[in-house]
């Protein structure tokens, strides 16, 4: 059985108090801290998401205050540029999007590993699951798949249950893989995700918006365990 990892998305935290928010989440029972890295740079006529969040300097500052696993989700068009800076800053996991890495994913995975991080690949709701199979079947594979359950860019959106077909297909093919879901997860959607086979659960607004975040985290862990 794959271990549950509950990862509050720090995108919903108070950025002005990031260190204490991180500490609070760990105290509430979080396994990982999910860090959403987005750039809003017009590059080759497009940007990956219409938002701008944090980067390596913030990860570096946070690392001084916590030993927690920092699960970085790169919503950028040029993830390769961020591997070394994030490795040096103390990131633990580096998950890039398959849509922007068609030509260089082998180089990316190799570089992520040599910079001491765990490589993961993510896909947007419109991207078929088959696109990540080559990255899992390679001799130097990614070690996690992040299935987006909302369009990436913002917290607080509605969970897309139809994405569970992707999770089911992945779990069937890769019984011990870390499968992460991200977007709209909380007490009312966790059972669907857990039943499909997801074990790494990102949750932003449902955790930070709850009067008792520890309760929400423990409820999600129980759902994954059962
Ligand atoms: C969206 C981000 C998510 C987001 C999730 O692009 O990848 O990690 O913070 O937030 P909730 O849980 O509120 O949907
Ligand atoms: Zn995310």
From TrEMBL:
CDD domains noted in UniProt: RPE (cd00429)
Active-site residues annotated for this sequence: 36 (proton acceptor), 182 (proton donor)
Cofactor: Mn(2+); Co(2+); Zn(2+); a divalent metal cation
GO MF annotations, alphabetized: D-ribulose-phosphate 3-epimerase activity; metal ion binding
Residues noted as binding a divalent metal cation in the record, renumbered to the chain: 34, 36, 73, 182
Reactions listed under catalytic activity: D-ribulose 5-phosphate = D-xylulose 5-phosphate
One Pfam family, short name: Ribul_P_3_epim
GO annotation terms (biological process): carbohydrate metabolic process; pentose-phosphate shunt
PANTHER family listed in its UniProt record: RIBULOSE-5-PHOSPHATE-3-EPIMERASE
Protein name according to UniProt: Ribulose-phosphate 3-epimerase
Lineage: Eukaryota, Viridiplantae, Streptophyta, Embryophyta, Tracheophyta
